[in-house]
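pasting input
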Amino acid sequence: MKLYSVPLSPFAARVRLSIYRKGLDIAIVPPPAGGLKSDAFLSLNPMGQVPTLVLDSGMAIPESATILEYLEDVFPTPTLRPTQADALARARLFLRIPDIHFQNAPRILIGMRNPADRKEEVVKTAMENLNKGLSYIDHYLSGEAWAVGGQPSIADCALVPVLNAVSLLESIYSQPLIGQYPKLDAYWQAAKADAINAKVMAEQLAALQKM
Ligand SMILES: N[C@@H](CCC(=O)N[C@@H](CS)C(=O)NCC(=O)O)C(=O)O
């Protein structure tokens, strides 16, 4: 099995977090020569995106949430999928909320990290979307040690990479983002201190510094 991934992508980073946490022997590789829109890659994944998980059978699975669930089905131990239905619903919400409500705000705002490249209207709308999404995440956090319950789950795989990007935005734009939401802030302070989370965060940061 191999995972096509790029270090900065929060979607690819979700899957790397699962792979590291579960200790899976899955090769993590960059997009092939020719890139994501090459004929060779598009024949694997017509969306031309990372992450893409290629199985030994040759089947290729796109979409981070689908890949995370697949890894839980095939490698159930250690589990990152809450077993209780309410907890699982909440974990899945933490994958859906950033995907739907941020409306790409972290990518847009990182793209405009240089003040000379900023379009104020675009920044304003992206900040509004970002804050809406953050407030929804804060709402569904319950103050437990991890996003859902007392152990890491697919919810943390989803939240940590995107919150890492948001945390960088706090310094780039000199404004509190995560810090405005007490439950979210407490979650983030604890999440940052975990070694596996920190490894993926460092991979993202190193890629951003190279850009
Ligand atoms: N919904 C997808 C989003 C994946 C995605 O947007 N990946 C970006 C990298 S962050 C990508 O491959 N972009 C290249 C493109 O769309 O052309 C998922 O959850 O995996």
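fyi The mean pLDDT is 97.
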